[in-house]
Amino acid sequence: FSEDTFKVGLAPETLNRTNLGTLQAGDSVNLERALAAGHRFGGHFVQGHIDSTANIIEIKPEDNSVWYKLQVDDPKLMPYIIPKGFIAIDGTSLTVCDVNDDEHWFTIMMIAYTQTHVVMPTKNVGDRVNIEVDMLGKYVEKVTTSILRGSGDADGSSTSSYIEKVVEKVLQKTK
Fold first, then answer.
1. What is the largest CA-CA distance in the chain?
2. Which of 13, 26, 56, 125 is the most exposed, fewest CB within 10 Å of its CB?
3. Are the C-beta atoms of 20 and 9 separated by less than 8 Å?
4. How many whole angstroms separate alpha carbon 45 and alpha carbon 67?
């Protein structure tokens, strides 16, 4: 470490999932301290674990804001990208505006304040950025899939019992 530089090591997993292997000395990156336990939380759940990359396919200014259209490199991530949900792009948590699942793209809009505090405005059409999708969506999918497959327990008995009770209550209400 020095006053204005530091050095990090990159694992093969990081190089495979991110754009960090393409960065040059002097390129800017977003760095943010982790939220300390016990502090007020007012944003999105971002871990800093990159899922994949996306290509910037369009940049469109609108008044003092800028729209970005990005196409994900891994289409399997599209279920976790929803309008008004969040996505972290190069470490910055942003709100998703539009989503096109068929063409694997989404948009975000960056207000003037954000533009002056992150590296995204230095990017151009064709640049690749790191993305982290909503971890809560991934957890919901995993738990739901597990329950529907009956594999939430060693023998699936309590999951099946729970589903049977829910179905019975719904059927009773329709009588």
1. 73
2. 26
3. no
4. 23
Give the residue-averaged pLDDT of 99-123. Answer: 93
- Reported as half-sphere exposure (CB side, CA atoms, 13 A), residue 49 has a value of 5
List the Cα angle 40/33/113 in 5-degree steps: 80
Q: What percent of the chain has pLDDT over 70?
A: 82
Instruction: Specify which residues 55 forms β-bridges with.
Output: 71, 128
Residue 97: which of 18, 89, 87 has the closest Cα?
87
156 burial type by CB count under 10 A (0-12 exposed, 13-18 middle, 19+ buried): middle
Only one residue has tokens 């995204």, namely 120
Q: What is the pLDDT at residue 131?
A: 94
